[in-house]
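Q: Give me a protein?
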Amino acid sequence: MDDSLSGPRTTRWGHNSAMAQGTVQVTHTGTSRWRRRTGEYASLAAALEAAGDGDVLTVAPGTYRENLVVQRTVTLRGPEGSPGSVRIAPVDGVPLTVRSSALIQDLLVEGQDTAAPAVLVEEGAPELMDIRIVTRSAAGLEVRGGARPTVRRCAVDNPAGIGIAVLDGGGGVFEECEVVAAGQSGISVRGGAHPRLERCRVHHASGAGLSATGEHSAFEAVGCEVYEVRGSGVQVTGRATAHLTDCDVHRTTADGVTLDTDAVLTLADCRIHDIPENAVDLRSRSVLTMTRSTVRQFGRNGLSVWDPGTRVDANQCEIHDSTGDYPAVWVSDGATAVLDSCRVHDVPDALFVLDRGSRADVVDSDLWQVRNTAVSVSDGATAQLDDCRIRDAATGAWFRDHGSGGTLSGCTVDGTQTGVIVTKGADPTVERCTVTSPAEAGFYVSAGGRGSFHGCRVTGSGGYGFHVIDGCRTTLKKCRTERCARGGFEFADAGGEQASGSGPVVEDCTSDESAGVRPPAQEPAVQTAGQSPGLLGAIPGQRTTEQEPLVAAQEPSPPARTSKAVLGELDALVGLDSVKREVRALTDMIEVGRRRQEAGLKAASVRRHLVFTGSPGTGKTTVARLYGEILASLGVLEKGHLVEVSRVDLVGEHIGSTAIRTQEAFDKARGGVLFIDEAYALSPEDSGRDFGREAIDTLVKLMEDHREAVVVIVAGYTAEMERFLRVNPGVASRFSRTITFSDYVPEELLRIVEQQAEEHEYHLAPGTGEALLKYFTAIPKGPAFGNGRTARQTFEAMVEKHAGRVAQLAEPSTDDLTLLYAEDLPELP
């Protein structure tokens, strides 16, 4: 019988010279003996063509340089017990295309075509099991259209493109799969696709770990892990939806989770940690629901919530162990956050709510171990706290300014410097709250603050119970104080005339000092002792997208250090010799000018605005901060604080908004230093109708109109800043001098590592210093080289490798725990 006409059979053939020697056995499912035959074919593709639905193709070990297309419901597999021995590796095109509900198992697929995926699933509901994909393709595995594969224990290594792409309505289930490298996103979902991920791992991706974008696009992830990615761990944008349950996201270089533009995300029993930026960032009407999830060890905000319509609902969640200087929860620009039965602790600040329309509702939650302010409400925002517990914070709650308010109801505040502060026209309602053992005051109202306090209690204050000054129109009803060191109630104005009928209203308030508390007299009262330093400290700053923080002090205060002390800190910085000389020369001129004025002599006019040029990581921001502090210590600036901005903070999206943004940044810097990083971005070479010019013009006018109020420092790469000043003579004429920050030499980078080691109680073993010098000499010095930042990252990498090494020792010695060896150095990038 002619083999070409035969029925089900077993087929074998040898490869031609372009392929490794091997055979493919085709086991057919026919029942008739005469149909079970073998034959030889010229290619693997011919075997697939000869096979029918239900047949099993067992591929012998070897390399097959063919583009396979599976269009029948067959089983295609390599030999059992020899994973990776069957290699599908054509020179171009798609190595494996699946258009049926086939079972494909135990193959190694290698792709070479950067414009095509290595494995493409277009139709059916195939099963792909134990497949390893090693490629440099547009995508390692791509699922599209109506395909619904089940993918189990597959690994994708694609440093050139996307690891796994599910698009155009595709779906399927991915179980125990791993993306070991991706040049873009690890797993990308778009075009209305909707896969389910179970116990998958994604790491070493150069984009987001898990990404979904576009309306109707969605994914569900259960028991998955995302780590070591150069982007966001999870990114959901453009009306996409995602559900994560029992997942871990950690060790990213950008935000842990990013939501933007009507994205919807649910996190349940998830863990987000070791994130250098925001752990979770939401914008543009996105909605996040978090349940029983943990956020820890984040460099910026644990939760960052922006824009009207953006909302986060967190229930039974924990946010703790910040590694930066930012509030754990940040709500601004009209966004809403709801925290129910949550815990926030070991952070610089717990909850900051800013801007009109922004709101936070906190119920039955605990905020503790807060270095600064537990709850801050400002710029017209609202916060409501019900039955919450605040302890061990500098300030329990601070309502800062006009239009800011809300309600504290049934809350306890324990172990703070000051329990509740109300300033500058803020008007909260505080009901049935108890402040225990404050160091300075239970409730403090000043600077035009208002507020209504009903049924509140202060016990064991180191200062006053209720301290109301400046004639503030505060209402106190049925409040009680006990054991307050300086007195239960203190009412005083700041001197001067007090309008009739102003001042606090006091009803049915009692103290253990007396039977009752009388309202203060309406005539001017005696000024009480001044507030302690730091009571009205700064609001910690917050960045906008991809920018450094805005840091602005809210109240003028005398400098904490002398210029000599600050210059001592400057001298202690590694390297920067020419910078130190320039700053000292400028400081000397200002100081001598001040002394000449005091002596009645003319003083030379010194322009204090500066240009800083040099590479990133050379200390420009640090020197700007110290410069502001020096000027404050000399009395040249009122505060000396630093406000750092860049183009995104100054340039708006429509006509007129740029001038407003620039004015706001200038006002925040009033009395201090306005530091504009990458200032050349305000004047791009292909500017066209760019609004950056408007920012420059506004800034020049403000510098002219308020010469003594703000010192402006513009900074950036040397060549770009030279161009910027050339094309903007109005800006250039207002700066006294340019200070160039040279790159650190290897010896200086070594000294930075040594300082880091000393600060963290590590030591460099003999020979490690020499190895570091060689490392810093050899490390590529391209545009991304971070100078001092690179030195710090190198130290951190050494500590991590040291920990992995020492953790294996049963009983490590002190030397084991402290000595860093050359073997702990990371590999050169």
